[in-house]
Amino acid sequence: MGHIVLDNVKKSFGDITVIPPLDLQIEDGEFVVFVGPSGCGKSTLLRLIAGLEDVSSGTIRIDGQDSTAVPPAKRGLAMVFQSYALYPHMTVRKNICFPLRMAKLDKAEQDRRVEQAAAVLNLTEYLDRRPGQLSGGQRQRVAIGRAIVREPAAFLFDEPLSNLDAALRVGMRLEISELHERLKTTMIYVTHDQVEAMTMADKIVVLQAGIIEQVGSPLELYRTPRNRFVAGFIGSPKMNFLEGPEAAKHDARTIGVRPEHITPSPSEGVWKGRVGVSEHLGSDTFFHVHMEGCAEPITVRSGGEVDMHHGDAIYMTPDPGHIHRFDGEGLRIA
Amino acid sequence: MATQHSRSAARVMLAPAVFLLLVWMLVPLTMTLYFSFKRYLPLRGGDQGWVGFDNYVRFVTSSAFWPSVQTTLLIVGGVLLITVILGVLLALLLDQPMWGQGIVRILVIAPFFVMPTVSALVWKNMFMDPVNGLFAHLWKFFGLAPIEWLSQASMLSIVLIVSWQWLPFATLILLTAIQSLDSEQLEAAEMDGANPLARFGHIILPHLSQAITIVILIQTIFLLSIFAEIFVTTQGSFGTRTLAYLIFQRVLESQNVGLGSAGGVYAIILANIVALFLMRIVGKNLDA
Ligand SMILES: Nc1ncnc2c1ncn2[C@@H]1O[C@H](COP(=O)(O)OP(=O)(O)OP(=O)(O)O)[C@@H](O)[C@H]1O
Ligand SMILES: [Mg+2]
Fold this sequence. Notes:
heterodimer, A: alpha+beta, CATH 2.40.50.140, 2 domains, 5-stranded antiparallel beta sheet, B: mainly alpha, MetI-like fold, 13 helices, binds adenosine-5'-triphosphate, binds magnesium ion
């Protein structure tokens, strides 16, 4: 079980309100990702759920029970910290075993669960090492191991992959997703990397300055962002925004088109510009196009290898079905 | 310091310091050794020639020797015990956010700046005096007969005075160690279901082990040779004669430099034995 409801939860540090009253519902077994720019209150929200911070007002219910005043250990949640927070003087085995020892489980059961977790996470060979003798990815797995042995109602991850290199990050991302498939336990995952959010989440919660901008599945957010902020945050590379006469043509203050929804051509199209920097990734090429009347260059995706170079004239055609329109407040116009 | 050149340059630059240290250590050591094999009574005939191991035999066979070793070890052990335990507790307390933290920290450190002689005098006259001391008043307030601290509980008194002086040092080192503990580790332990006592035992104390080791080693070095506190208070009577004090008495009160020097050599041996034991017991903490 792991059904978590936040009802009017607010958090202030002294005079500064980090999280204005906020409602959120997390279903049992869901993989929820909190995503948002740095300092928007993702960690704070997670720590409120964990019980490491007290809410200023509002209630947190876990599996229907009011847990607002319940101490962290009693909430049945397990947390994986960004710094891993392994106990440096204990072996991997003792680290993973620690929550079980604290729960005073009998020795045989402790051993069984540790062995099982180690097998799941490929840690069996390292059980007698200390954290200092492990690589970053291995430490990460130990931290996850320490979380899973408790068989918690939900896992909380605070940017668990941000200390890993790019290749390892992709690997661990898959491992965590796989773990979720296998355990079917609720997971709440904090990240500021929208790729992690898109690839792992069942449900993404986009936060800005403590306010929930939108909640939805990755594709919902991609297809129908509720406002300009979400539109710009979800998707990589970023959505292009155009204002002025181009937007007026579509009865909007601003229009947004994703790079993958613009077709470039050397000879004909709706918009005309000049190629600036181009990024060749092999499978795709991204052109940064300078267009008259646009402060920011427009990013355009082209499949495969295209023969256009710096300074060349380029024509672009947006896909009419994929033009997002926003009003003066930045809200989506349906 | 990777290249050959920079290494030899480093050696040349280190040489004066090393030389100075060597002279600093070797001259007194050689002189002590030299005198320890002589019969040398400055006021009663001066240098009377070589006597072999006579002084060494006389020093150990004197009835005061073993009790003085025992006293020394008791004082060192007692002070270490008190300063480490109280130091850990105080460090935990000072680590808590509280009002006036800066001032409280300075107050805690203050005793370390008081000279041993002064602090011993203050304790002797203001606290432990059986007539006018604060403790005497306290005892009388509760209707008890005041204790004559320095004669009835002489060892305890000295251990208390010395502990009071060294507590700030222990607290300071342990406080910095506590502050270097990653707070996420404590939070992780809290989530793992560890109550405050378990968090202390399983996380904080192991984290402190290195600092505790350092405190023990450094304090031992200084505690083996405490002198002023005894000189000012009991003058070595009432079973408070440490090895250092015994040597002082042999040299200055009995005016026997040869015998005192032999005692000095024993003191060196004792210090090394203690150091060896300590390194065995706690030294492994320094590797981590
Ligand atoms: N203990 C605290 N006291 C005062 N302000 C705090 C405290 N903890 C966090 N804040 C503030 O709350 C805001 C949100 O912090 P939080 O750590 O939740 O951000 P975040 O979204 O996790 O950012 P990041 O992606 O950089 O980790 C920040 O502006 C921060 O300065
Ligand atoms: Mg954070």
